[in-house]
Amino acid sequence: MPTPADPAAHGGYDLLYHGDAEVGDGLVDLAVNVRTGTPPPWLAARIAASLTGLADYPDGRAARHAVAVRHGRPDREVLLTAGAAEAFVLLARALVPRRAVVVHPQFTEPEAALRAAGHAVDRVLLSAADGFRLDPAAVPPDADLVVVGNPTNPTSVLHPAAGLRALARPGRTLVVDEAFMDAVPGERESLAGRRDVPGLVVLRSLTKTWGLAGLRIGYVLGEPEAVAALAAAQPLWAVSTPALAAAAACMEPGALAEAARAARAVAADRAYLLDRLRAVPELAVAGDPPAAPFVLLRLPDAAGVRLRLRASGYAVRRADTFPGLGPDWLRIAVRDRPATDGFLRALAAATTGRPGP
Fold this sequence. Notes:
By secondary structure, the protein is of the alpha/beta class. It contains eleven helices and twelve strands. It folds into two domains: 7-37 and 261-352, Alpha-Beta Complex (Aspartate Aminotransferase, domain 1); 41-254, Type I PLP-dependent aspartate aminotransferase-like (Major domain) (Aspartate Aminotransferase, domain 2, 3-Layer(aba) Sandwich).
C-alpha cells in the first residue's frame, strides 16, 4: 500500500511534509506557524511545577473539565489529545467511512492518517479563482466523513460558520479543524460551542498560540458517542501530566484574555505585512482577506524565490506539498514588524535582484 509520504501515489503531493523541515540554524523562521516568544514565562512555570507529579499516572479530569467549561459543554463532550494531530489518527482508527472526503488545500495530516489506516480518500479541491472559498454543494452528498479546516492552513481562509453547518447531515461525521481559530479575533465563525450540529467534531490545538509544539496538547469537541469512540481508540495515558497542566492553565480567564490580545496583535501585524506586500510586483495573496497567522502567496518562480530567501537567512514554507497547489505558491508566517521589514527587503532582492526599502 502506498505510504502518505509517497508523492507519486498521491498526485505528486508529499502529505507528510511540514514547515519544520524548512527551518535551520540561523534562519529567521517564517515557515512554522507557532507564535514567537512563547510559551510565556507564567505558562512555562506552570508546566515546570507539574514535574513534581511525574511519578503518578496522568489524571486528565481537571484539564478536561476546564476545556469543557471554556466551551460551554459537559465533560463527556471533550477528549484531550497529544496535539490536534493525534485526533486525526484517532478518527482514522475509530471510523469506518464509506466515502471520506477531505477539502483541500488544507493541512495534510487528516488525509495522511486516513490513508495510513487503509481508507480511500476523495478530495474536493477549492480554486484560487474563487479565493479558495468553500461551496457546500461541492462536497458529494454521499460523503459520510468530511474534513475541512477553519481558518484553513495554508490558504488563511475563514469559512462562514453557516456554510460549514450546511455540510452537516444525519449519518455524516463533519470534522472541522480549528487549530488556528484562537488566532482569529473573537473566534468568529467558530463551531466549538455548537452542540446542535449533527455529527460535528471540532479539533482545537494549544500549540500555535502558546508555543507548545514540543509538548503536544490539543483536544476534541463533539457528541458524547463520538468522543467515546475516539477515546476507545486512544492509548492509555496519551496526554502527559505537563501537557494536562498546560491545558488547564490555558483555559483560565487570564490566559484567554492574553490569547485574545495576541490574536489582535497578529491581525495588526498581518495588516502591516499585507500592506507592504502590495508593492511586490506580480505577487498575489490568497484569502480575501487572510484570517490566520500566515498568508499564502502566489508569485512567479516561487521555488527559486524560496531558495534565494533561504540564502538571505529567511525560511518560508513551500506550498506545493498541499493538494491543489503548485510550485508558484509559498506560505509565510505573520511576524512582528521588524521581522516583516527584514523579510520584505529579502523578498525584494529575491524577486527583483534589488534590495527592498
